[in-house]
Amino acid sequence: MESHLGFRGRRVLVTGAGKGIGRAVAVALGRAGARVTALSRTAADLESLTRECPGIETLCLDLADWDAVEAAVGAAGPFELLVNNAAVAELQPFLEVTRSALQRSLDVNFGAVLHVSQIVARQMIAQGMPGAIVNVSSQASKRALRDHAVYCSTKSALDMLSKVMAMELGPHKIRVNTVNPTVVMTDMGRINWSDPQKSAAMINRIPLGKFAEVDDVVNSILFLLSDKSAMTTGSSLMIDGGFLVS
């Protein structure tokens, strides 16, 4: 799929690129000829990523550190494409939500997306360069889930942020969209949803009868980054097997 999407030589930043979806996106883009910068807060993950895909450049940063991000991302750019994938999932019952969990979730799931996108979009505009931004949201932005008060809320906020970004950045030829997956079978997803009793309750609400694989999400992100989706902005692409229609 990647070979005909026109990524060769294009500069792209992927956050949360150490594991899971972000890592798979970075690898796919690197193999498609893009010049990838992978951002993660875990040095060991970035080291293993560069062994897997030697051409990838890395940034080891905590996205909650506003000043460090400003300096490092600003120096690493300019970028033509951006994937905001980094997120945290602090799952607590509503009555037990802690201030620290709330703040960390807001900092990473919402604030970091806003901040990194500002830095990258300003560079695109200064260069007179069209671009595309894909923010990784969730089906949890559209449907209440038990113990997900903070996570659902930050992802819902991310969806609306993405729409405003699309509206304001459109005149600069910068497109902004989200992908909204259901449970994804990353390594962590397989661990968290390996209990048949737990997984059955969710799968029974998905008309296609299965969770998403990592490639399902990666392929959707690549499409939205590519010129094949040149008329698509401000959209949320559901990768949920029909969860929201059931």
From TrEMBL:
<dbReference type="Pfam" id="PF13561">
    <property type="entry name" value="adh_short_C2"/>
</dbReference>
<comment type="subunit">
    <text>Homotetramer.</text>
</comment>
<dbReference type="GO" id="GO:0050038">
    <property type="term" value="F:L-xylulose reductase (NADPH) activity"/>
</dbReference>
<dbReference type="GO" id="GO:0004090">
    <property type="term" value="F:carbonyl reductase (NADPH) activity"/>
</dbReference>
<dbReference type="GO" id="GO:0005997">
    <property type="term" value="P:xylulose metabolic process"/>
</dbReference>
<dbReference type="GO" id="GO:0006006">
    <property type="term" value="P:glucose metabolic process"/>
</dbReference>
<dbReference type="InterPro" id="IPR020904">
    <property type="entry name" value="Sc_DH/Rdtase_CS"/>
</dbReference>
<dbReference type="InterPro" id="IPR051737">
    <property type="entry name" value="L-xylulose/Carbonyl_redctase"/>
</dbReference>
<dbReference type="InterPro" id="IPR036291">
    <property type="entry name" value="NAD(P)-bd_dom_sf"/>
</dbReference>
<dbReference type="InterPro" id="IPR002347">
    <property type="entry name" value="SDR_fam"/>
</dbReference>
<protein>
    <submittedName>
        <fullName>DER reductase</fullName>
    </submittedName>
</protein>
<keyword id="KW-0521">NADP</keyword>
<keyword id="KW-0560">Oxidoreductase</keyword>
<comment type="similarity">
    <text>Belongs to the short-chain dehydrogenases/reductases (SDR) family.</text>
</comment>
